[in-house]
Write a structure and sequence with these properties.
The protein has about 300 residues and is an all-alpha fold. It has 8 helices and no strands. Helix content is about 75%, strand content about 0%. The radius of gyration is 33 Å and the shape is elongated.
Length: about 300
């Protein structure tokens, strides 16, 4: 709709200034929210978990757990989960943009956009079995990593005995087998994650083709540039939510695996508590209605 010529110029500048202020406030609040939820909160949670694991390692009962479990929990489970958890605050941005984008798509294209949305939503159904497979592979990979770290530590602690007995080749083959098992599970985990990401990246293009095709077949009169180009822009804007949401699903699985492993470690039995000693100035011996006697020594009175 054209702007009437009698419209005052200051009103246009005021509208532009208000729009710029809204965009500035939106970007500032988004940046602050991502910093607080994605940096400070994750850092504090990971620091608290590290403190708990460190304290538990000092109280752990002898012979419980495996060698190198603390290094694996801190170096792979906790640090890896903290790095991936930084993307979790983006989930709320993706959900909000997803709701708004889908609304505009249905308004512009009608039911023709429903097919494209179903194609993009199909990534969730595909990512569910892949996510389960990735979860199993990640748990097996972390367990194999603990075994590899334990074998390496055993070799380093008994290096003199290994050198004296000439067991270098045997130990090397043993560690290589454990490392090969770990890499096999790691490869399976990476393949599942990458397949989910690539499906999310390709889904907007396939959705655009399906929507335009249905629009041409059902409503040829609406196949115009003012309808098709906004649909293409909207599906491209929806590309980020449909890429990030399957990734968030995998991130939640990885965090769940790390949290379950850390929880299992923290629930291991501890050393029995030493007997409590009396406080300073407290009563060490208390007798009631008793007779105390001891043999008399030469030169000492008997009680």
């Amino acid at each position: 709709e054209p702007i009437p010529p009698e419209e005052p110029l200051w009103r246009g500048f005021a509208f532009a200034g208000g729009l710029g202020a809204c965009l500035l406030l939106e970007q500032w609040s988004k940046t602050q929210g991502l910093h607080i939820a994605g940096d400070e909160a994750i850092l504090r949670a990971s620091s608290a978990a590290m403190q708990l694991v460190t304290l538990k390692a000092g109280r752990l009962r002898t012979g419980v757990g495996s060698d190198g479990a603390e290094q694996t929990l801190l170096g792979k489970d906790l640090v890896g989960a903290a790095d991936m958890a930084r993307f979790l605050p983006l989930m709320w941005l993706c959900l909000s943009s997803l709701v708004g984008g889908l609304t505009v798509v249905f308004v512009l294209s009608g039911l023709a956009g429903g097919l494209g949305v179903l194609v993009m939503a199909g990534t969730f159904f595909v990512s569910i079995p892949l996510g389960r497979r990735a979860k199993r592979s990640q748990a097996a990979m972390l367990k194999a990593s603990e075994e590899t770290a334990g074998a390496t530590r055993e070799l380093l602690d008994g290096a003199k005995v290994v050198k004296f007995m000439g067991w270098e080749e045997t130990y090397l083959a043993h560690i290589c087998r454990r490392r090969a098992t770990e890499l096999t599970h790691l490869r399976t985990y990476r393949i599942a994650i990458n397949v989910v990401v690539q499906i999310g990246r390709a889904s907007p293009i396939i959705s655009i083709l399906c929507t335009v095709l249905v629009l041409v077949l059902t409503s040829p009169d609406r196949f115009r540039a003012d309808v098709v180009l906004p649909i293409i822009s909207l599906f491209q804007a929806l590309r980020v939510p449909f890429i990030m949401l399957p990734m968030v699903f995998q991130i939640l699985i990885a965090i769940q695996v790390a949290a379950s492993r850390i929880s299992a470690y923290l629930q291991l039995p501890e050393q029995p508590a030493p007997p409590a000693a009396a406080g300073e100035g407290g009563t060490l011996v208390s007798l009631d209605g008793a007779t105390v006697s001891w043999p008399a020594r030469s030169g000492a009175p008997a009680a």
